[in-house]
Design goal:
This protein has 8 helices and 6 strands. It is of the alpha/beta class. Strand 4, helix 5 and strand 5 form a beta-alpha-beta unit.
């Protein structure tokens, strides 16, 4: 696939983080200041993800804890596993409400359901706008063209998708990059050794969804390097 400005290549270390933050900074403002942000947090819960599931649980807890002081983020967890098993929690407003749902999930072998996930996001945002979709997964076993067609619908509806790819599976890499491009989101690869980087990047997306650029800039003071980098990219812009 031809290189696209929304793709993030494996340059390693701070360069990869900076590339992702550049993409996030270029994403359209999340929502109006007088409305609550809504973030759909989606995960592949098939058997291949089991070794890293506990880490993901901890990361998502940190992610939503970072937005606690903003008071403007509603979150829904969606996941798939097993034989056509797709589930979504109610929308919740605090990390404490979401974590029990996450920790009860057990991975189960089965095919990926990325297209089903994206179709669900289309339906949800048609009812009430979703400001960002975060997806964490490692592979894709579906028709890429069909998946990307639905991603295009999300792009038209203004829902950026931020895809975090665990591992190096090439089909998933190509498809996830295209989904990011079609929705004006971003793609980033990670592995078991980059959990801290993933946590910071997820926190950046959550803060962005909760309050847009200004909230992220305000939140950056005294925080980790990734948050400081994106605040620098945003400069004086406001949501």
């Amino acid at each position: 696939m031809a290189k696209n400005k929304r793709d993030i290549t494996e340059k390693g270390g701070n360069t990869g983080v900076q590339d992702f933050l550049n993409k996030l900074a270029a994403t359209p403002t999340a929502h109006a200041a007088d409305t609550r942000g809504r973030l759909l947090f989606a995960m592949d819960a098939t058997a291949s993800r089991e070794p890293s599931w506990d880490t993901a649980c901890q990361i998502q807890g940190d992610m939503f804890a970072q937005t606690a002081t903003l008071g403007g983020l509603d979150v829904q967890l969606a996941y798939y596993r097993g034989y056509k098993d797709f589930r979504a929690t109610p929308w919740v407003s605090t990390s404490a409400d979401l974590i029990p749902y996450m920790t009860k999930v057990r991975c189960l072998g089965g095919q990926t359901q990325v297209e089903r996930l994206l179709r669900y996001a289309v339906r949800e945002t048609s009812k009430q706008r979703i400001n960002a979709l975060v997806f964490v997964g490692d592979c894709l076993e579906e028709d890429v063209d069909q998946v990307c067609t639905v991603a295009g619908e999300l792009g038209v509806l203004g829902v950026p998708c931020f895809l975090f790819h665990e591992g190096v599976e090439p089909t998933a890499s190509r498809a996830f990059k295209q989904i990011a491009t079609l929705t004006q989101g971003a793609y980033c690869r990670f592995d078991a050794n980059s959990a801290a980087q993933l946590r910071d990047l997820l926190a950046a997306v959550a803060v962005y969804a909760a309050g847009g650029r200004k909230a992220l800039s305000d939140f950056s003071h005294g925080k980790g390097q990734a948050i400081l980098q994106i605040a620098h990219q945003l400069g004086p812009k406001a949501s």
